[in-house]
Each structure stands twice: as structure tokens, then as C-alpha cells.
């Protein structure tokens, strides 16, 4: 299996997984643009978002993961995008949807692809923040 994301889904390569369901897996990007940058990929290989049925497979996980990022990281906004083909910037030939939390100190589309200083230095801390189990009764206090 040569596909990087297929190997991650199969557990052959490590990842900082933040969500998984029967059709998709979400994990932190190892070279994030911004703190909390997450990728959602289908479990079954699909070349890109134009592959028949691929969007349907990842859409529920995109929605759940986007809410998780918003709620746990308290971001001020979120970019959701996927590139189809090398000319569009797709660098791994397996559908992946980018969820990029955005913060008020770096607004707008122009700042999207500028890697924020330190965004990749605290991946373990971000992973812990996203996967922490709520305290018993915390929902009752909210």
C-alpha cells in the first residue's frame, strides 16, 4: 500500500486522530497552516473530491470535526476546502478535506496559507485538547 493516507487509516503510520466513524477518519495535519489544522479522509481510497460518492463518505465526519474544532479550540472562524488534482495544489492523491481553524489575529483568505508561527509546535497539546473526555456532569453545568 503506497498511499500515505490509506496507510494512516490502516494504522500502519501514526497520526493524531481526533475523530473516526465507519466511513472517514480525521487527524491533525503534521504541517498545519494554523493551530488545529485537521484533515478528514475517507477510509476507502478515493483520488479526490470528484470521485463518485467520495464527498458523501466524508461529509458527516467533516461536520462533526468542524464542530469539535470550534467548540474545543474556540476559533473565531473555519476554512473548509479540498483540492482536486496536482494543478489545484493536491499533494497527496487521496481525498482529504482541510479544516483550518481561524483566529481573529490572522483574518481573511490571504492569511489562510501563511503558516502561523508555532502552529506545528504544540500538536500533542492540540490533540489532547480535542480528544479530552468531558468531566462527568460537565454538560449539566454548562
TrEMBL record:
Q: Which residues form the active site?
A: 96 (tele-amp-histidine intermediate)
Q: Pfam families of this UniProt entry?
A: HIT
| One term of GO molecular function | catalytic activity
Say which domain of life the source belongs to: Bacteria
Question: Which Gene Ontology BP terms does the record give?
Answer: nucleotide metabolic process
Residue limits of the HIT domain?
4-109
PROSITE patterns reported for this sequence = HIT_2
Q: Identify this protein by name.
A: Histidine triad (HIT) family protein
From what organism does this protein derive?
A: Auraticoccus monumenti
Amino acid at each position: 500500500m503506497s498511499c500515505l493516507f490509506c496507510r494512516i487509516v490502516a494504522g500502519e503510520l501514526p497520526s493524531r486522530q481526533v475523530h473516526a466513524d465507519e466511513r472517514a477518519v480525521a487527524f491533525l495535519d503534521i504541517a498545519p497552516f494554523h493551530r488545529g489544522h485537521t484533515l478528514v479522509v475517507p477510509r476507502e481510497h478515493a483520488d479526490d473530491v470528484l470521485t463518485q460518492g467520495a464527498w458523501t463518505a466524508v461529509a458527516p465526519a467533516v461536520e462533526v470535526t468542524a464542530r469539535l474544532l470550534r467548540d474545543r479550540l474556540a476559533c473565531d472562524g473555519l476554512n473548509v476546502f479540498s483540492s482536486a488534482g496536482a494543478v489545484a495544489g493536491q499533494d497527496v492523491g487521496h481525498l482529504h478535506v482541510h479544516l483550518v481553524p481561524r483566529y481573529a489575529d490572522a483574518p481573511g483568505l490571504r492569511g489562510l496559507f501563511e503558516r502561523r508561527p508555532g502552529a506545528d509546535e504544540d500538536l500533542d497539546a492540540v490533540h489532547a485538547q480535542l480528544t479530552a473526555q468531558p468531566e462527568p456532569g460537565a454538560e449539566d453545568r454548562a
